[in-house]
Amino acid sequence: xxxxxxxxxxxxxxxxxxxxxxxxxxxxxxxxxxxxxxxxxxxxxxxxxxxxxxxxxxxxxxxxxxxxxxxxxxxxxxxxxxxxxxxxxxxxxxxxxxxxxxxxxxxxxxxxxxxxxxxxxxxxxxxxxxxxxxxxxxxxxxxxxxxxxxxxxxxxxxxxxxxxxxxxxxxxxxxxxxxxxxxxxxxxxxxxxxxxxxxxxxxxxxxxxxxxxxxxxxxxxxxxxxxxxxxxxxxxxxxxxxxxxxxxxxxxxxxxxxxxxxxxxxxxxxxxxxxxxxxxxxxxxxxxxxxxxxxxxxxxxxxxxxxxxxxxxxxxxxxxxxxxxxxxxxxxxxxxxxxxxxxxxxxxxxxxxxxxxxxxxxxxxxxxxxxxxxxxxxxxxxxxxxxxxxxxxxxxxxxxxxxxxxxxxxxxxxxxxxxxxxxxxxxxxxxxxxxxxxxxxxxxxxxxxxxxxxxxxxxxxxxxxxxxxxxxxxxxxxxxxxxxxxxxxxxxxxxxxxxxxxxxxxxxxxxxxxxxxxxxxxxxxxxxxxxxxxxxxxxxxxxxxxxxxxxxxxxxxxxxxx
Length: 562
Hints:
By secondary structure, this protein is an alpha+beta fold. The protein is 27% helix and 33% strand. The protein has helices at 50-58, 69-81, 132-138, 162-184, 192-204, 206-212, 218-225, 255-262, 329-338, 360-371, 375-392, 425-445, 514-517, and strands spanning 14-21, 30-37, 40-47, 62-66, 86-87, 96-101, 107-114, 117-123, 233-235, 247-252, 265-273, 284-294, 302-303, 315-316, 318-328, 339-355, 401-406, 409-414, 450-454, 457-461, 479-492, 495-500, 505-509, 529-540, 543-553. It is globular and about 70 Å long. The two termini are 51 Å apart.
């Protein structure tokens, strides 16, 4: 991704801004904009076209946040490229701008230099990853999100009604209020993950951080990263695809912070040995060639990525032909418990020293804030607790995209190759392995009634208490009963629905907008459906329009119990 320019020495003000735009691809433009000074809510600017916004923006050196910069920023880039500004990859000079856009098209910042100075646009979703409506509720703000008719025709020169202006002002103000609190705690980085890492380095000491977590070579990092896997998410086929009766939902209290708190963490530069782990090694990442067959009465937990022979989202019950993967000692121990594992060869092993308690001061601080706060500070504490672990395994390939005009439309092209040093991938690899072990062990202990899991949650049939897990509403790492359901349908990973006690329908289908999911019931997941109303962004002259499309859902054929 392109490098950001250095900030001016003079402290720049922070603003929260938002656009309201037309939905006609033949007439895509801003029909209202607003911007509020984060630290002075009496300073509010608004207008009815992009020219007015850019005139204000470029005359006001600032950090200005949009809650979804990929959308609003596309209108700004369109304006810049059509008004004499040139995109550059390094430090922008007058009438130039640079961007920080990932190779997946995620916008992080746009930095512009005008006659009046430097403006940096940032994405507040990267700081506060909640919708505007959820921010208002989570931060317990008096300002509430309103509704307007988004599809209404608004011709050029349209003057917004007072309700429409209030709608826009509320959106801007909700984000401004949340940013005011967030920035006041010292969270000045581009993302909440970067904020968390900076906070952790401050607590542990930057010199000590470097001693514990040295920068590994790119070659070593690449090999270690092969053992990095995500959360355990699984719909058990014994129960999938049919209507089930009552049950309970349990969540781990702060899963990732808890495994960071209670488990040894790898440190330093590992020793590399050819072949198998040496006797006595407890924490290692090894490359093995193996076959496997699930043990009777056990939950599968091996996923094979980057293979033409296996679906990467499915857990395998048998692997007949030898396959080669890298795996942590934590995962390998679980695989041996759950499978008849035939390891044909060990192809090399990284052996780690470990350290205990290295995250405890950080976690103690933010658990105390979470326990003793409400509203915004409680949300900020949760963000700090849940955002740190992922930064350790940050991708080193930061080749980004950059904008060009093609046939009058802003198009993103892949930029020059760019890498950055790793943070300390072994920590991220083992933390996620510990988290999988936690959820998988609890599910296996309740195998007879286990129906579904998603990273830190477990859904069990029946209403009797679960076996062999610690249940507590708030203790770190304990399982909390999040609720009881009266009926449920589990289809596959990230696709399920439950009717909770009290009648609330909890429908979770990855990629399906909440405004559609909120109208569904468990019965809807028993048959194939095509739902209308999912919005997809389309780049057009002027910016982006959100066009309605369909979402196709495929039910799962009922599996027989047993």
